From TrEMBL:
GO molecular function terms attached to this record: glucose-6-phosphate 3-dehydrogenase activity; nucleotide binding
Signal peptide as annotated in the record: 1-29
Keywords, in A-Z order: Oxidoreductase, Signal
Pfam families: GFO_IDH_MocA, GFO_IDH_MocA_C3
PROSITE patterns membership: TAT
PANTHER family on file: BCDNA.GH03377, NADH-DEPENDENT DEHYDROGENASE-RELATED
Top-level taxonomic group: Bacteria
Domain GFO/IDH/MocA-like oxidoreductase: from-to ranges: 168-277
Start and end residues of each Gfo/Idh/MocA-like oxidoreductase N-terminal domain: 41-159
Descriptive protein name: Glucose-6-phosphate 3-dehydrogenase
UniProt cross-references to InterPro entries, sorted A to Z: Gfo/Idh/MocA-like_OxRdtase_N (IPR000683), Gfo/Idh/MocA_oxidrdct_glycsds (IPR050463), GFO_IDH_MocA-like_dom (IPR055170), NAD(P)-bd_dom_sf (IPR036291), TAT_signal (IPR006311)
Amino acid sequence: MMPNPPDRRRFLAGSAALMLGGATSPATAGPSGTTAGGPARVAVVGTGARGSDLIRALSTIESARIVAVCDDYGPHLDRGLHYAGARVEPFRDFERMLDRTRPDAVVIATPLFRHFPMAMLAVGAGCAVFCEKTMCGSVEEAKTLAGEVEARGAVFQVGLQRRSNAIYAQAEAMVRAGMLGRVVSIKAQWTRNNSWRRPLPVPRDHPDRPALERRLNWRLYRETSRGLMAELASHQLDVATRLLGVPPTRAIGTGGIDHWRDGREVFDNVSCIYEYEVAPDRPPAPPLPRDGADRPYTVRVHYASHQSNAYEGASELIMGDRGTLFLTPNKGLFYREADPGEADWGRGGEPGSADRDAAVLTAGKTLKLSNDPWAHRGKPFEIDATGDDTRDSLVSFLDCILRGDPATPCDARVGLVNAATILIGDEAMRRQSPVDFPADL
């Protein structure tokens, strides 16, 4: 057990304040077309599975009023309209929707390749924008969009889910407080046993089937997708960047189409290592016990995702020299790292100890250190929180709109760094060689 464990309610209260930035304070100002306190008039473009989730969440938030939904695929548009309500106007053309309804805010839940042009149009029309991750499909697009958002002072938020989760806000507070000591490694994975391919509502010999395949399964093709890195790794690598406080310096990786050989063009399994150069005083920790302690040190972030085994699910493991955080959206566990002087050096020839212990040569002596992963874990400090990441992120976004505050929980600059992080990993896997983080970001 860790000594003097922190009070959970105190940590969660602090986390909520950090995450929401005072979202419960009264709204005093809003964009054109809203009154103080709202509601904001919201249009949603892209009403497939994710867009419908966002519509359902918006419909429960008093500070939002959905005025339009837009999708150029009829069945998706019908579904979005069903969730949004009969009084909402449907559109198939995005520009026409902007011109006709002039919403205060636009929620973009379209395929990745459409994020940039739609976000640019919406920002140019004076709208606040909530854009699903990954923000853009190229670094140049992301730079252009972030520049436009900053030039206009627009309210802009990227849908990186863990940014609005109290468990991750508390994890950040614990890292900043030095409870983990010096972060030395991060591991994350998101594993599934699913092809990611959506069934088509037409027979195999239908003339429209090829076009419909590309439309509905856009995640599987290079022209429209960046695969597992953009759709899954974006959330988890944002956690690493957030906790370490700096972007990565480079990425190496490997990936392939090794299980689902069905004509897809994006990898069905990915493995990447990112290198982060971290200042010695960030996260807070005692000086390094060696020469050069004032120089940055390297933290390596290991990321893996595959689609043929779901055993490990999705989680992040943040390892420091004083403690470890195991994080999921529903629960976090903090394990205190044993002091080196408290290590279990073996059982002196106890039967079976050879299977449990590793020999370590130190100063001419042979010591034994347990290989059993459970031997180094005491009882964890549990971090629990209730909430809905999607709804909570929209509440924060709407609060920023009504207050006229561009400092959203995940603004365009965060989205730019996240997009670049994802894209260098994707490029490193395709090139089979290291790729540096862009020097001009």
